[in-house]
Amino acid sequence: MEASRFQSLTKEDSFEIQQLFMQIRESFQGRPEELIPVLQKAQKNLGYLPENVLLEIARFTKLSAAAVFGVATFFEQFRFHPIGKHTIRVCRGTACHVRGSHKILDEIETRLHLTPGETSDDRLFTLETVACFGSCALAPVVLVDDSVKGRMNPSETLKTLENIRKENVEP
Amino acid sequence: MDYTSMKAKASREWNFLENLPQPLIQIGMGTCGKAAGAVAVLDAVKRTLKKIHYLGRVMEVGCIGPCYLEPLMAVRKPGRPFIYYGNLTPEKTEEILSRYILEDDPSPRLAACTLGDGSIEGIPKFNELPMIRPQVRIALRNCGLIDPENIDHYIARGGYSGLQRALKLPPEEVIREIKASGLRGRGGAGFPTGLKWEFAAKTLSKTKYIICNADEGDPGAFMDRSLLEGDPHAVLEGLLIGAYAIGSAEGYIYIRAEYPLAIQRIETALERMKTYGLLEKNILGSRFQFQVHIKQGAGAFVCGEETALMASIQGARGMPRSRPPFPAQSGLWEKPTNINNVETFSNVSAILEKGADWYAGFGTEKSRGTKTFSLAGKVQRTGLIEVPMGIKLGEIIEGIGGGGPKGKKLKAVQTGGPSGGCIPMSHRDLPVDYESLAAAGSIMGSGGMVVLDEDTCIPDIARYFLTFTQSESCGKCLPCRLGTKQMLDILEDICEGRGQSEDLELLEALCKTIQKGSLCGLGQTAPNPVLSTLRYFRSEYDAHVRDRKCPAGVCKPLFHYKVDKEKCNGCGVCVRKCQAQAIIGEKKEPHQILQNKCVKCGECYQACKFQAITIH
């Protein structure tokens, strides 16, 4: 395991974690088959899965830490680092690829100096790729937070990112 | 509630809607509609109605199919057909709506088609559109026409009558009906559904499970998403019929977390079913009982494989296991389990409603019925379509899809996603059915159909799919884990200009080993994109390896852009588009590309109206 792969939480976040486990105990019984939904719930609340939360989930589901880390790292959905304020997801589905999504990705990578999975130093952007959104008819598709933007191109994407940056600079 | 009173209530509501004394406005609010801006259009509709002080009913519907026209709005005045308007903006919406409602001017120039009784001069009918005419909508029968959150709409249009009929038959009769219809699994492999049910039905066990596989993992496929978003009850009714047939009282819907709207639609649908007595105990007054759980997939392509999917429901890593035992004998928690795809279930409810003979009347002898496809890529009319099996490939691409973008030659059609292959356009007469597609080196798959044109590089597409399968390989068996990595390395060499002449033979040999040696379908089919392209597009591989050239201008180390001095009139569009400042030249004089600065992004190539930028 690389040293940087997992990250633990700081003291300020402990309130959030307590709240999370209160909710988890309310809606789950701690059966092993509930592992994936519990991980999903934790990530939904915290934005990512910190190491100590994974260990706590292992205790809750009565599984070994290895089993929990094994499942969490197997699935694409789970993250182990906090994400930026805005998540940019570039769709890498076939239709998007054919219509030039790799060029959009290239452009973001060079401009923001990020590779997929990374977060910018100012914590403003996290770049991710997705296998397919199923909005292929509007390819290429870029997701900015929760809004799906269809028929995109490199310059339009950069403009969107630039606008977000401006919004965050001005009060 | 018994079926008769349920149907009576639903029909009353539907008739009221049909004879609404005010205008009815429908907006396609599927994921694709929203991506194109349907939310802003919906706001514009509401705003406009308020502004012109007019009562009108606004209804959100699913995807009706022609996604290239999104965002779409349909407007119906009392006694007239719906008029569909596409590619809307909020401003256009306001203008069209107020003009039609206040001045009775339907703006025929801006309309796409009409739907329903009657016609309006200057606007073609929906069913006569070139995109729609060849289609037969069975699985998609209600998509885009009903409010997917309103169970009464579904019931009024014949919904749950199939379940009502099934529950009056012994389970064996239901299985016989499905067998007689000739329905085969729509998830890709095409196993006869009736036979699959029979296996699960014959295994004796107190507990049995039925699973709806909605883990649509193929990049380039969105049929299942559209179906669940547009008509969730059609799928759920099929699931209930299947459960009754095999003797199961508990089911799972395994759905991708990437489809939040579809998940929400299923949740709403299940709530409605409970209040209508279509879930839990004494369903439709019978002794049949059933409950459903929703399981959200966490993003792993391999979980489309039955045994991997079940492992993931049990909370483990989604890794397949060897079969036998088959799920019908020992599946989820070692109990007999039956898994079918979303589209299969939607067909099941239609078959029980209208009968096996009716269904078997569509399609070919071995592939009965219809198949949905998501038509995307380099084609004019992209969208969700449903065609009778056996339709010619060319009829789909050129007839329904309207051919490629202007001035571009089509090269191939990719079906079946990472497990499928590329079929060259010269095979336009190929019938689209399970056997013919397999003979052509591809597969039916779940229904992704991506069109490739002359600007698509074939080795790059093969590399693209291998990048996907390699990263999605679960790592359990060696041929898939290391074999796909090796294949990807070779393909990267080819695309980066390091390919050697013996690489192609090595690639072919590897493909055959991986096909034979892999544990599950992911590995067994991973070589298909490579094998099919080596079969039909060998010359493109040769160009990369021997001549170090990428004819399509995709693989960056193997081409450069040049300005054709004869065609360039120095308009300067390319200079403005170039982010790398690699284009220089005086106004109205031929320009020049500085090769050391050019990053080959292709913006100038796309932007030039005079085709003066060429690939070398």
Strand order of the largest sheet of chain B: 2-1-3-4-5
* CA gyration radius of chain B, whole angstroms: 26 Å
Pair of chains with the largest interface and how many residues each contributes: A-B, 47 and 59 residues
Q: How many β-strand stretches of chain A?
A: 4
CATH class of the largest domain in chain A equals: Alpha Beta
- So, CATH architecture of the largest domain in chain A? 3-Layer(aba) Sandwich
- Uncertain parts of chain B: none
SSE layout:
The complex is a heterodimer of chains A (171) and B (616).
Chain A: H1 14-27, H2 35-46, H3 51-61, H4 65-74, E1 86-91, H5 94-98, H6 101-112, E2 125-130, E3 142-144, E4 147-149, H7 154-169
Parallel strand pairs in A: 1-2
Antiparallel strand pairs in A: 1-3, 3-4
Chain B: H1 3-18, E1 24-28, H2 31-36, H3 38-51, E2 57-61, E3 73-76, E4 82-85, H4 90-103, E5 111-115, H5 151-156, H6 161-168, H7 171-181, H8 193-202, E6 209-214, H9 223-230, H10 232-246, E7 250-256, H11 260-275, E8 291-297, H12 306-313, E9 337-341, H13 342-354, H14 356-360, E10 370-377, E11 383-388, H15 393-400, E12 410-415, E13 421-424, H16 434-439, E14 448-453, H17 458-472, H18 478-496, H19 503-517, H20 521-525, H21 528-536, H22 538-545, E15 561-563, H23 573-577, E16 583-584, E17 592-593, H24 603-607, E18 613-615
Helix pairs in contact in B: 3-4, 6-10, 6-13, 7-8, 7-10, 9-10, 9-11, 10-13, 17-18, 18-19, 19-21
Descriptive account of the structure:
The complex is a heterodimer of chains A (171) and B (616). Chain A has 171 residues and is an alpha+beta fold. Chain A has 2 domains: 64 residues, no CATH class; 84 residues, Glutaredoxin (3-Layer(aba) Sandwich), CATH 3.40.30. Helix content of chain A is 47%, strand content 11%. Chain A contains 7 helices and 4 strands. Chain A has a 4-stranded mixed beta sheet, with helices on one face. In chain A, a hairpin with a 2-residue loop joins strand 3 and strand 4. In chain A, helix 1 packs antiparallel against helix 2 and helix 6 runs parallel beside helix 7. Chain A is elongated, with a radius of gyration of 18 Å. With 616 residues, chain B is of the alpha/beta class. Chain B has 5 domains: 126 residues, Glutaredoxin; 201 residues, NADH-ubiquinone oxidoreductase 51kDa subunit (Rossmann fold); 84 residues, Roll (Ubiquitin-like (UB roll)), CATH 3.10.20.600; 88 residues, de novo design (two linked rop proteins) (Up-down Bundle), CATH 1.20.1440.230; 56 residues, Alpha-Beta Plaits (2-Layer Sandwich). In chain B, the strands form 5 sheets. Chain B has a 5-stranded mixed beta sheet with strand order 2-1-3-4-5, covered by helices on one side. Chain B has a 5-stranded mixed beta sheet with strand order 11-10-14-12-13. In chain B, strands 8-7-6-9 form a 4-stranded parallel beta sheet, with helices on both faces. In chain B, helix 3 packs parallel to helix 4, helix 7 packs across helix 10 and helix 18 runs antiparallel to helix 19. Classes of the chains: A alpha+beta (171), B alpha/beta (616). The interface between A and B is large, with 47 and 59 residues.
